[in-house]
């Protein structure tokens, strides 16, 4: 898989350091609040498991599968909930964990939905932030690494469901998706 990369953008070591930093920030902000941590499947699963283990406070976990990309590499603009939560968010402090914030459409949709359902607070933690891809006004509350507008894979991010299990984040060679 590494040989399919044009370059490694975020190394395994940088991911570990970023997770530790975010874990400390989240611990400080959520101590005593018992947040509901929502993992946005499938991409955020690796990041979510690492970041909640870096938090020193009680958390409850749930999962949503939300899509705006389908099998392509550009957002369709349509946000579709494939799998909804099992947990009632009313009155809860909710932390959405994302692998990457790109256009902001999916994130805006989720935040609005959870607020509408009565969450006391809704914040977002993302490993990667791609502000140059933003088409709506939406920012994460906790950001790991700001990345350029390139097609990224690894550590949860995929191309046609592959590359998720790479321990780093890389820029895939164009020949694999042209």
Automatic annotation (TrEMBL):
Any one GO MF annotation of this record: magnesium ion binding
Keyword Magnesium included in the entry's annotation: yes
Residues of the Phosphoribosyltransferase domain: 13-159
Top EC group: transferase
Zinc found in the keyword field: no
Pathway annotation: Purine metabolism; IMP biosynthesis via salvage pathway; IMP from hypoxanthine: step 1/1; Purine metabolism; GMP biosynthesis via salvage pathway; GMP from guanine: step 1/1
Keywords, in A-Z order: Cytoplasm, Glycosyltransferase, Magnesium, Metal-binding, Nucleotide-binding, Purine salvage, Transferase
EC number(s) stated in the UniProt entry for this protein: 2.4.2.8
GO cellular component terms listed in the entry, alphabetical order: cytosol
Essential cofactor(s): Mg(2+)
Gene Ontology biological-process entries: GMP salvage; guanine salvage; hypoxanthine metabolic process; IMP salvage; purine ribonucleoside salvage
Compartments reported by the entry: Cytoplasm
Family matches, as InterPro entries: HGPRT, Hxn_phspho_trans, PRTase-like, PRTase_dom
Chemical reaction(s) catalysed: GMP + diphosphate = guanine + 5-phospho-alpha-D-ribose 1-diphosphate; IMP + diphosphate = hypoxanthine + 5-phospho-alpha-D-ribose 1-diphosphate
Functional note: Purine salvage pathway enzyme that catalyzes the transfer of the ribosyl-5-phosphate group from 5-phospho-alpha-D-ribose 1-diphosphate (PRPP) to the N9 position of the 6-oxopurines hypoxanthine and guanine to form the corresponding ribonucleotides IMP (inosine 5'-monophosphate) and GMP (guanosine 5'-monophosphate), with the release of PPi.
Entry-linked PANTHER family: HYPOXANTHINE PHOSPHORIBOSYLTRANSFERASE, HYPOXANTHINE-GUANINE PHOSPHORIBOSYLTRANSFERASE
Family: Belongs to the purine/pyrimidine phosphoribosyltransferase family.
Protein name, as recorded: Hypoxanthine phosphoribosyltransferase
Organism: Granulicatella balaenopterae
Highest classification ranks of the organism: Bacteria, Bacillati, Bacillota, Bacilli, Lactobacillales
